[in-house]
Amino acid sequence: MLQTTELALLRRIAAEQADSRAPSLTAGVVREGGLAWFGARGRVDGAAPTRDTQYRIGSITKTFVAVLVMRLRDEGKLDLNDPLDKHVPGTSFGAVTVAQLLAHTGGLTSESPGDWWERAPGGDWAALERSLAENALRHRSGARFHYTNVGYGVLGELVARLRGHSWLEALNAEILQPLEMKRTTPHPQAAAAPGWAVHPFADVLLPEPTPDSGAMAPAGQLWATADDLARWTRLIAGDTGGVLHPDTVAEMREPAHVDDADEWTTGYGLGLQVMRMGGRRLAGHGGSMPGFLAMVLADERTGTGAFVAANSTSGVAVGTVAFDLISTVEAHEPALPTEWLPLTDHDPALLELTGLWHWGPTPYLLKLLGDRWLNLAPVSGRGRQSRFRPAGPDRWTGLDGYYAGETLELHRGADGAPSHFDLATFVFTREPYGVPEAIPGGVDGKGWQSGIR
């Protein structure tokens, strides 16, 4: 990056480390497929932390568990609408769905009963399940967002049941090894930052405990380095390295719930926090454990992301810093638009379908995209629009907005020529109401008329 950009980034984290009195802080900016900038302030064992220094990342762990669950969904081993009882039978909250657990809308209690799980050694699944035998639900399932660490302990057990081994083994085999994240571990491995609490009224420190959380570990156990957090930020932005299809990550970034519905700024998707800040739509997750704070964020439009990690229990505005790093880079060195290139191959039969179609009297444009995808959007730019992925001969599945998951089907006449599209019962014709026999309710035989009677 330009020296002026790097200075602005360093100035931002230096101010945060000094103002919030963080023992140490590392941060990085990710763009164009790699770690574009790294910065560090403070000391770990008497020296500046490096890209290989581990920090505990807390609830960012949940995003790894969510990816494991979505992999199971993509393999057909579960459906997001499945009740928990189908895969982990016998709990007192078995009617809660997998999707609700991912999005924190199942109504499950926020913390595990008993000692504060973040500071106490955790028991096994049997112990956690017993502790939830009564009063596990705090709200009606699906009624509202209620952040639940317990829910991700449950999802870790679900992964273990369906994979036949622990969630950590699944994590290592399915995510960490393929992405070459060699320094993401359930326990610290040197070099690792110690966790500290900073006294509120004096510049002195208190060591914080880092116990194994047992069955609650999927909620916040992991440690990671800057290099590994950079790779994970890239995945959230859509560079999945084959671990997930980019469309699945995009699905995870879609808000399942928003906190302020009138003009939402924060919400939660399927394992990812989502937010709108300064005109940007961001996805990622924060992490907080005794002695540590962390954040990963990515701008889904530009692909620019940032991460921050600090070894302090509280006081470091890691989310604000991550956003400021993204904004600084985009202001100093804005991302270039993706270079336009013509299709390398196309189906002439699909090319013939492009152009103007009408839903009733409303004109729509159908465009051909790569890989036989289609894009259908109103000419005015206002209204429902979607991309469609091939789902068989003359059939496509909607990917966006109102038509997500719906089927676009091409109907042909007796001669095999295209007649009309049916999209979730909505009929699209070349001319307004151009195929009367296909229009629900029929078309007035007098046709278009002049004047108003």
UniProtKB/TrEMBL annotation:
Write out the transmembrane intervals: none
DUF7586 domain span = 347-430
- Alphabetical list of InterPro entries matching this protein: AmpC-like, Beta-lactam-related, Beta-lactam/transpept-like, DUF7586
* Assigned EC number: 3.-.-.-
Q: Which GO MF terms are attached to this record? A: hydrolase activity
Name the domain of life: Bacteria
User: What's one Pfam family here?
Assistant: Beta-lactamase
UniProtKB keywords: Hydrolase
Record domain Beta-lactamase-related: where: 12-321
Q: What is this protein called?
A: Serine hydrolase domain-containing protein
Give the species: Actinokineospora guangxiensis
